[in-house]
UniProtKB/TrEMBL annotation:
<feature type="domain" description="Co-chaperone DjlA N-terminal">
    <location>
        <begin position="23"/>
        <end position="140"/>
    </location>
</feature>
<dbReference type="InterPro" id="IPR007791">
    <property type="entry name" value="DjlA_N"/>
</dbReference>
<dbReference type="InterPro" id="IPR029024">
    <property type="entry name" value="TerB-like"/>
</dbReference>
<protein>
    <submittedName>
        <fullName>Tellurite resistance protein TerB</fullName>
    </submittedName>
</protein>
<dbReference type="Pfam" id="PF05099">
    <property type="entry name" value="TerB"/>
</dbReference>
Amino acid sequence: MFADFLKRLIQPAPEPLTGGDARLALCALLVRVARTDGDYSASEIIRITRIISARYDLPQAEAEALRQEAETLESEAPDTVRFTRAIKDAVPHEDRLGVIEALWQVALADGVREADEDALLRLVASLLGITDQESARARQRVMGST
């Protein structure tokens, strides 16, 4: 099902993703962050579904279906760099801070700050052109709102 999508992502110079593909790539990145520590918890699944629903103005059932597609894509995808490149190409710089904030929401959903998740978020932020300071402020906003 995702063979064409993955094929486009691994091209040396992939075309920018359009709406639905960019959405799926972002959701798969959310799943990847949640799975990084080896514990894909119910709280993380719920948080991802809520983020998808709010970000894309989707009803619960559609957000859950998109999350499930993203789970499948994430498990088949080759690496985080390609997801991040696709998102960077599809999302304007000013909106990427929202992406980082959503990723921090997922990483912190289980109430535990894991070193693996921190490392992945540092990598993703850098690849998205987000500074460590901007990412730290996004993390602090998330921690302050929970």
